Amino acid sequence: MVAVKAHELRNKNKAELVKILDEQKQALANIRVQKVAGGKTQEIGEARKNVARVLTVINQTQREQLRLFYQKKAFTPLDLRVKKTRAMRRALTPFEKSKKTVRELKKLAHFPLRKYAVKA
Amino acid sequence: SQNKALAAKKAALKGVHGKAVRKIRTSTHFHIPKTLVLNRAPKYARKSIAHAPRMDQYRVIRQPLNTETAMKKIEEHNTLTFLVDVKSNKNQIKDAVKRLYDVEAAQVNTLIRPDGYKKAFVRLTADVDALDVANKIGFI
């Protein structure tokens, strides 16, 4: 069983990857049949991981392309947005937190924190 | 001129909405009136990528069976026996067999084994020999 390499897969385009995925799934199905017939079962692990690798590359490149596409847009799909936690997503932005009232600004202007030194 | 003034005052006090039309009710029951219903025009897709079909032929058919009773079925009744995904239905099994092995299924019977797996008996059409197909698949 030849192990598929992810870095080789990343050069391919979508149509080829879909074809390779089908081939790998076919290979996995064949190994399952061989297992029933009493053949080699050691390759099954490798076959499963190959399928996983192809799917990972397909999905990763798809999402990456979509993120580029949505970069300039106002609204992005929910699964491309930052996840963090629910509370953090609803918290004030750093700019909003930094806003001060006129009263506070005046206070800061009139009574700044003074630096002084004590003469030895 | 005074008549004109009086008429104007009367009109001003009466207002513009003098003629109120009452709807004619032909039934004693009140049904909610039909209002405008707009179609959806989302500003963004909720899911970025639509998922590929999850129950594809590789997921449906897990493995063929070559037990003694399964072999009997192949020889006598022209049927293949498979372990299939529990969530698959007969139509999906028929379709999967067609896609994987290029054979038409005349009939599919299923049962769920006590250990949780679904077993499918796929009777092939009369023009195909189950033994040949089994040899081709490779599990004899």
UniProtKB/TrEMBL annotation, chain A:
Keywords: Ribonucleoprotein, Ribosomal protein. One of its GO terms (biological process) is translation. GO terms for cellular component: cytosolic large ribosomal subunit. The keyword Ligase does not apply. The keyword Nucleotide-binding does not apply. GO terms for molecular function: mRNA binding; structural constituent of ribosome. SUPFAM superfamilies: Ribosomal protein L29 (L29p). PROSITE patterns: RIBOSOMAL_L29. HAMAP family: Ribosomal_uL29 (MF_00374). Belongs to the universal ribosomal protein uL29 family. NCBIfam families: L29. This is 60S ribosomal protein L35.
UniProtKB/TrEMBL annotation, chain B:
PROSITE patterns: RIBOSOMAL_L23 (PS00050). Keywords: Ribonucleoprotein, Ribosomal protein, RNA-binding, rRNA-binding. Residues 3-51 form the Large ribosomal subunit protein uL23 N-terminal domain. GO terms for biological process: translation. GO terms for molecular function: rRNA binding; structural constituent of ribosome. It comes from the Eukaryota. GO terms for cellular component: ribonucleoprotein complex; ribosome. Belongs to the universal ribosomal protein uL23 family. HAMAP family: Ribosomal_uL23_A. This is Large ribosomal subunit protein uL23 N-terminal domain-containing protein.
